[in-house]
Amino acid sequence: MTLTTLQSLIALVSHIFFILTAFWSLQAIRTDTLIRKYHIPQARTLYILAAIAIGYTVSQFFLEFILLIQQLFFFL
């Protein structure tokens, strides 16, 4: 397995993990008062899109952080 393949696999797993974690965390927010009647599919779509946006951003942060730490140790 090449280094590029391993990095891609780690990034994919990281993205999925943080997206699922963000989706799980978003369910703690009470949105009953914000959602209008008969708009449940739109609310679910909003939850999924928000989870993807938050999860991807957090995943990118951690992957970038790990990369910067590796580069720091490389230069020392």
Automatic annotation (TrEMBL):
Keywords: Membrane, Transmembrane, Transmembrane helix. InterPro entries: DUF1146. The chain crosses the membrane at residues 6-26, 46-69. It holds the Pfam family DUF1146. This is DUF1146 domain-containing protein. It comes from Alkalibacterium indicireducens.
